[in-house]
Every structure is written in C-alpha cells, then in structure tokens.
Amino acid sequence: MAVPETPELVKLIKLSGLRLAEDSTQTPYAILETLIKTLEELHDQRLTVLTNVSHYLQVPQLEALGKVVAEADLPVIIIEFSETRQVNYFKSCQYYYIDRDFVLW
Q1: Which residue in 56, 53, 33, 55 sits closest to 93, CA to CA?
Q2: Are 90 and 62 in contact (CB under 8 A)?
Q3: What is the pLDDT of residues 52-93, one digit of tens each?
Q4: What distances in angstroms separate CA 50 from CA 24, 44, 57, 67, 69, one per listed residue?
Q5: Which of 77, 79, 37 is nearest to 55 (CA)?
Q6: pTM for the complete prediction?
C-alpha cells in the first residue's frame, strides 16, 4: 500500500467526516464569517475574492464582516457589480467605483 507524501486536504476532510457546525452555515453572513475565520485558522494568506456581497448582506452585517476581515488581517477583495455608485453601503471599506466602460473611476 502506498500513501502519497502529502495527502490532499480536501480528501482528508472528506474522509474524516469533518463538518462545520450547522449554526455557522444558516445565514449568508454566518457563512462568510466562518470562511474568514477558517482561513485565519489555516494561516491561508492567499487573496480571497468575494463577489456581490451586497446582494446578501445588510449594511450592519457588511460593516461587521469588514471588522472580522480587518481583525483576521487577511487579503480580501469584495467585487460588486452595480450600475450605480454605492458609497453609503461601503462606508467602512476602501471603495472604488468603476463604471461599465471603465471611464469613471
């Protein structure tokens, strides 16, 4: 029987039956918070890209998520596809608006 030197993490998790607590996957905010905290625990410093978060979170939840990301000190980019500027929605973030034809920045 041969075992690879470095087993794949995904396969190990699947075989072990490891699951997230159910309350950590009940709401979009809980899922995103769990994702950030898991990446922090794994010391994963790869860039995490989230898209269209504003479709799932309210302003207070987005602000709370911003605090979780800041405390975790992880590289995270949130990309929002929107026809209009949403500066008020992203007050606690570094927000840059780029229009469809890349003229307005």
Answers
A1: 53
A2: yes
A3: 888 899 989 988 998 998 899 889 988 877 777 777 777 777
A4: 18, 15, 12, 15, 12
A5: 79
A6: 0.73
Residue 69 and residue 19: Cα distance in Å, rounded?
23
What are the pLDDT digits (tens) for 20-55?
777 777 899 999 999 999 889 888 888 999 988 888
Token digits of residue 5: 């030197």
Measured between alpha carbons, how far is 101 from 72 in angstroms, rounded to an integer?
34
Where do we find the tokens 């479709």? 55
- From its phi and psi, is residue 52 left (phi > 0), alpha (psi between -120 and 50) or beta? left
